[in-house]
From TrEMBL:
Protein name as it appears in the record: Uncharacterized protein
Keywords: Membrane, Transmembrane, Transmembrane helix
Spans traversing the lipid bilayer: 20-46, 58-79, 110-129, 141-165, 185-205, 226-249, 255-278
Transmembrane as UniProt keyword: yes
């Protein structure tokens, strides 16, 4: 291999171009994973639609379909833009890296950016929704808990719009260069996801402790296992976003590869959550009642609930709201029980 074949570019520029091209390849692989998850979720959800529950199932179907369409458009746009930079306009002054940095606003790039912002808004919205579902039943009113995340979500959406306008608008307000909306936009979304990840994990850890204390470590593991916490809290997305933001702040050329892969990581993380919900393993409003009625005992798993055994073998549970539940089981037949509230 002759060194004369190498473009007359700096090592940093060459590294950025390598990262871009390899990022496009890895993004396509991640897209394949997302396609598989989408059809698995779609199949499970479509089977569950009935006249009574369609109001719960249909929004998830619409959500994953819109997200999948946006992800597909993004991959197609990425492939086309990569082709323009490396093949059709490879003699652009400065090479493909310069082409990428200076061709903001062309139609194919604008479509990709819009899809990316919409996908990020959908992803952030889903994790906020999951946080709200998991915190329902808490002693603190749920609107107090969700106020700050909802404000951050709104700010992130506004900042995403400002970022798009900065990339595509000719207005002096956006092209003056006084404000770079990239860091605030990515930073808000990252901060939101890290906060949501932490509060969801803390909530599930608290549930796990309460359930294990009252019923033993074998109960509720499908809702509070480590894998469940990672999926429910979208920790995959938060971790990847953190790495992306660090690379951007450090001005590392590999940042380009991460930004191309980010939308597909978002889709994978969100589809994993929907898949758990479709399987009936995701935490929902009915989770507490399902665990309460599971054998061999009536269970109270509200935050702050506790129970104690009586000499006759029955159990009494007192909830944080002051409601006492008394379960009396016959020794000869564990399937029959008397429950007094």
């Amino acid at each position: 291999m002759s060194s004369s074949w190498t473009p007359d570019e700096s090592s940093q520029v060459l590294l950025a171009e390598k990262g871009w091209l390899q990022g496009a390849v890895v993004s396509s692989i991640a897209y394949g994973i997302g396609v598989t998850l989408f059809f698995m979720c779609f199949y499970l959800l479509i089977r569950q639609i009935t006249r009574t529950n369609y109001k719960k199932t249909l929004p998830l179907l619409i959500y994953i379909t819109v997200d999948f369409i946006l992800g597909t458009i993004f991959v197609a746009v990425l492939a086309d833009f990569t082709q323009l930079a490396f093949i059709q306009y490879r003699n652009y002054p400065g090479g493909p890296s310069a082409f990428e940095n200076n061709m903001f606003g062309i139609p194919v790039d604008s479509v990709g950016n819009v899809c990316g912002v919409l996908m990020m808004a959908l992803s952030d919205g889903l994790v906020v929704w999951r946080c709200m579902v998991i915190y329902r039943g808490c002693m603190v009113p749920v609107w107090i808990i969700m106020l700050f995340p909802c404000l951050m979500l709104g700010a992130s959406i506004v900042m995403g719009i400002m970022w798009l306008l900065q990339l595509t608008s000719n207005s002096p307000f956006f092209t003056s260069g006084s404000i770079n909306y990239t860091i605030p936009y990515l930073g808000l979304s990252l901060a939101l996801n890290i906060i949501i990840t932490i509060v969801i994990v803390l909530r599930l850890l608290t549930y796990r402790h309460r359930i294990s204390k009252v019923l033993g470590p074998g109960y509720g593991t499908q809702y509070t296992s480590i894998a469940a916490m990672i999926v429910e809290s979208a920790a995959l997305y938060s971790t990847f976003s953190l790495a992306l933001l660090i690379l951007f702040i450090l001005n590392n050329p590999i940042f380009g590869a991460f930004i191309e892969l980010l939308p597909q990581i978002q889709i994978i993380a969100m589809l994993l959550i929907v898949f758990r919900v479709a399987q009936g393993k995701g935490w929902s409003q009915e989770t507490m009642s399902r665990v309460m009625t599971s054998k061999p005992s009536v269970q109270a798993i509200r935050m702050g609930d506790f129970g104690y055994s009586l000499p006759d073998g029955s159990k009494t549970f007192t909830s944080s709201s002051g409601i006492r539940v008394h379960a009396n089981y016959k020794s000869s037949d564990h399937n029959s029980a008397e429950t007094t509230v």
